[in-house]
Amino acid sequence: QELAERVAMTQRGDQIMSDHTTLALIKAVADRSARLDELYDDGDELLHSEVEAMTGDGAMDEYYKQLADLRARHREGGAETTLDQDPSEAMVSAVLAAEPDVVFAGAEGGGRYLDLHACHEAYLNIKHNEHVDYYSYLTAHVLRPEAVSRAAARTGAYHRYLQGLLEYLTSFVQRTQPLAATAVAARLDEAREAAQVAWASGEVHRWQQGQEAQAPAAVSSAMDMEGDAD
Predict the structure, then answer these.
(1) What is the rounded distance in angstroms from the CA atom of residue 161 to the CA atom of residue 141?
(2) pLDDT per residue as tens digits for the range 108-167
(3) How far apart are CA 93 and CA 98, in angstroms?
(4) Who's near 165: CB < 8 A, 6+ residues apart?
(5) Cβ distance 115 to 107 under 8 Å?
(6) pTM for this structure?
(7) Residue 203: enclosing H or E segment and its boundaries?
């Protein structure tokens, strides 16, 4: 009942917590299924050997031997070996007991808003770059790489700014939309692969001028060294 109530939450903050609870439950079910798969695969052939031992003339002797082992383990483990709760219910209880650890900055409004002030400050510290206020940065610069001069784009500071922006946006999605985080990560991987192909084909014209023979990693290293020199 508690699980159903938490998943059915509709307020923004509550919905975020609900999504994290759902994700935790999905992971718990997946982990449990993986453990069961390992048992059924019988990689160490222990199950096979036990089944073999329980067949034939010595089946009853093996049965009483295993029963004695179980009783001995129960005496040694005490209450720890007693199942007071159905395993499925225990798994759900464990998920509910583990409150999601989701932290938002004050400006993020509990996950309702992006807080790009740190990215804006990093943007302003890029050499050869235009200084703009926060509103202009959000509306005309943050998603428009063409607004950055080529001289600024070649600096290590710009490279680090882009890395920080990507890390923040990824973190925001993971915190606010945990159920979509895997799909977003897959899209990012696809975008990286597409960028590698475009670079290898010389199709990234603005950024490859005078650098056609270099791989992206080599250009990135050159940008870092240039930024360090700044």
Answers:
(1) 13
(2) 999 999 999 999 999 999 998 889 999 999 999 988 888 888 889 889 999 999 999 999
(3) 9
(4) 116, 119, 142
(5) yes
(6) 0.65
(7) none
